[in-house]
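agent> fetching stored inputs for the zinc ion docking request
agent> found them:
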Amino acid sequence: MRLRVQGTILAAALLVIAGSDGRMLAAPGASSSSLAKLKSGNARFVSSPQDALPVDAGRRAALAKGQTPFATVLSCADSRVPPEIVFHTGLGDLFVVRAAGNITDKAILASVEYSVEHLNVPLVVVMGHESCGAVKAAVETPAGQSLGPNLDYLVSAIRPSVNATASRPEAERMRAAILANVEETLNDMLTGSAILREAGKEGKVAFVGAYYELASGKVYFSEPVAPPPGEPRATGGHQ
Ligand SMILES: [Zn+2]
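agent> prediction call returned; pasting tokens
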């Protein structure tokens, strides 16, 4: 059985995602500052989505020397959920990793590890979204029915979250499954990567969940998720 990240913290986190926003991150300065930037950028996208993104030739040229993104975002590949736009950010601001259903695998974990270990990104966000087609596929595909080996892989990663929320009323079920899938991805990230787990324990990076609402453009954030106890880095990392 896999390790779980701290259940009570996650339960509270998901309550925040599902309900009110605006609770501040109780984490060290850099991650709090990154979260504040994401919140203010999203507020601008919500109120003035027509505003031009902060992209210009000077910044583009300056970035040729290197990058220092202020947050890493793992989001769904859905065309309606581009992190750079929904957080009103420019070139070099966000390290973005995307896969349908915002699941993790080795390539995604390695990408997030790179951002934390080599680019010193202080905040990692896993962002699910309303009406996620990948979660819908996992809800609607009967166990045992194949969608092909690659989609089966995707659906199998989401299915535990679907099963865990199967008893919820129909009207709430999709949203509950999407939130559970964000939780599962954070769990997979912190249990599947010694590098991320240790960086979290050392306070170098904070991890939060998020939920994006399609029509309003609003992003709801969770409280930070604490890494679970695990293998020391010397024995658990760099497979
Ligand atoms: Zn999606």
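agent> quick read of the result: The pocket of zinc ion is lined by residues 76, 78, 100-101, 129, 132-134 (CB under 6 Å).
agent> awaiting further instructions
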